[in-house]
Amino acid sequence: MSIRLLALAGTLWIGIASQVTLARTPDTAADPATRAAAIVRKMTRAEKLQYVHGYFPPYQKPRPPQMANAAGHVPGVPRLGIPDLRESDASLGVANNVEQRPGDTATALPGTLALAATFDPVLARSAGAMIGSEARAKTFNVLLAGGVNLTRDAWGGRNFEYFGEDPLLSGIMAGAAVAGVQSNHIIATVKHFAFNAQETGRDVLDARLDHEALQESDLLAFHIAIEDGQPGSVMCAYNKVNGIYACENPWLLTDVLRNEWHYPGFVMSDWGAVHSTDQAALAGLDQESGQELDDRIYFADALGASITAGRVPERRLDEMVTRILTAAIATGLVDDPVPATPQPIAAAADAAVAQRVAERGMVLLKNTRNVLPLARDVLPLARKARHVVLIGGHADVGVLSGGGSSQVRSVGGIPLEIPLTEGTAMSFARVTWHASSPLRALQAAMPGVTIDYVDGRDVPAAAAAAARADVAIVFATQWRTEAQDLPGLALPDNQDALIGAVAKANPATVVVLETGGAVLMPWLDRVAAVVAAWYPGQRGGEALARLLTGDIDFAGRLPLTFPRSAAQLPRTGPADPAHPIAYPERADVGYRWFGLRHETPLFPFGYGLGYGRVTCDDVRFAGGAHPQVSLTLRNTAARATTAVPQLYLVGPEHAPARLVGWQSTDLAPGETRRITIAADPRLLPRYRQGRWSIMPGAYRLTVGLAADAPIATGSVTITDAAPSPS
Ligand code: BGC
Fold this sequence. Notes:
Layout: H1 3-10, H2 19-24, H3 32-42, H4 45-51, E1 72-74, E2 85-89, H5 112-117, H6 121-137, E3 142-144, H7 167-182, E4 187-193, E5 206-208, H8 211-215, H9 218-229, E6 233-236, E7 240-241, E8 244-245, H10 250-260, E9 266-269, H11 278-283, H12 301-308, H13 314-331, H14 347-361, E10 363-367, E11 387-391, E12 399-400, E13 416-419, E14 430-434, H15 438-445, E15 450-454, H16 459-468, E16 471-477, H17 495-505, E17 509-514, E18 529-532, H18 540-548, E19 581-582, H19 591-597, E20 614-622, E21 628-635, E22 641-643, E23 646-650, E24 658-662, E25 665-667, E26 672-678, E27 686-688, E28 691-693, E29 697-704, E30 710-718
Helix pairs in contact: 3-13, 6-7, 6-14, 7-9, 14-18, 15-18, 16-17
The protein binds beta-D-glucopyranose.
């Protein structure tokens, strides 16, 4: 089925904008768009104008009591039952960065990259549902969650908030998370539409990319997330796309979002991303957010004046409000309002969700000399570690979190917080650790084993401590934040030297990386094991202890490529925002760029080890209109494990492999299971000359356990059996 057809089908969910939909829905009284339009007819122009611009509560002095000190507030119209929109950031939990609301804690999930690494949409939905339930309890009804920007630059400050480099994985996981949030009868957002690929100069940069490449990469991720998650809102980005700011870009907001995808919800701006009244309103922006952050307020009196002067038609204002209300009605926000006062959250159950994401999302990158699992009954007695030393990363008190508007003030407390003294993130980010101590979790998991901690600032002392232990575990950290990119991909603060010295002192060295993405590993050959723990969230220490001791197996796989060096990437650092930025990789982001250039990464997309042993036999590929692969997985080990077979499509025209499906499969000890992975139909067509179409012909399908490690390859013929639009 073509993307266009799926988009048409997608309009059915809240049934607006399409005559087909209305004709099939005789009970128009129940239709959200019709209900919204009926309300709009009763609104005065002043009331409508009031609903298309929002406040930034931290700047309200004094702040009205009904305004939560969070990201945004849009007053409703009580006489018509129109609710206030109470907005909070919520990518990793209900945010409370720089403790705007003292004492208001929420459950902190791991960074979104960890969620992506689970390759598990069901878990993504639970994570979204958990965030949504806490938001609801805290009286928020619009969540600025769902970052779907593809990781194009390994140093991107916000990469930890996104789902990695692949459009299918990002779209499916984001869509599932959005659906989970909205199952609480509140609105979720996907953001930042589109192409906010770097933080450096994010509010001025001009991303240049042809429509074909955009449609097949970043926009494809958004489209899948929107189809699957049906978010009430889309947040337009700070940057320009092909010379025009995203929030006043008619191609993005009208041609693609509205006309091609038939998106029925509303477009809200990012905070400080509006630059015009008429152009933005006419291009398709429906709501100016956090207006105090714009250089002036564009959508209140100024929009009224434009309507009076005839520069913006009154019906456009009606459309803006109708779209906002349609989303509010369709998600259930109007009929099932959030509580008037904060309610308790289900802290224990929610923490279990955070732990599950951490357990399923950490990735084992290397494991030699049987160094892992650390102990217990898994290894013969002689090999059990009796003395383990943990080094660095403040692993005695907690785990690192990424910074910026997504920062959660976690349940359990913040044992360590370092304010910034410079940089663009200074006013709204602090370097923060969640109280989930790997040291204490490992001590609890391995009674009878001596487990010490040294902070690693004194490298010779750390090496000496490592020499005395059976196993040394170095916790390496790399903090990222919104609004700033990393200066490079190396671990900061002399940590490479620390790891090198520890590995020299003790070959049984394990490195646990708490990072917001890929880092360089000059010491890789000298250490025994490496774990990518991402930003592990408020139960990261406990999750890590279970994984390191072998209580559970690693199920995570890389949602992005780890390069050997920046020289392998399309750019070698953040692009200069003073000039338009070209993207030579076009749609071939991440592993596809590596495939195209025949570069071997340090670790490929899709890669990850486990303790189990899984064989894969009897692989059968099928082509036609529904390409797929069937295979038999067999767990030959005496322990439970997880396999994540991935299906890639190559061709036609020598295009690099692209992920078209996967299935994360848990296998009991000795279990054999036959599975089928179908290619997602949205990945089959290509965007050529302004339309999506499947190019029938010969293709190659490969199934593998990583993007560059095929287990089997088959040649198939793919046909276009999509029904005709008429
Ligand atoms: C970020 C958005 C966020 C908004 C409100 C902006 O700076 O880019 O992701 O939702 O602030 O906090």
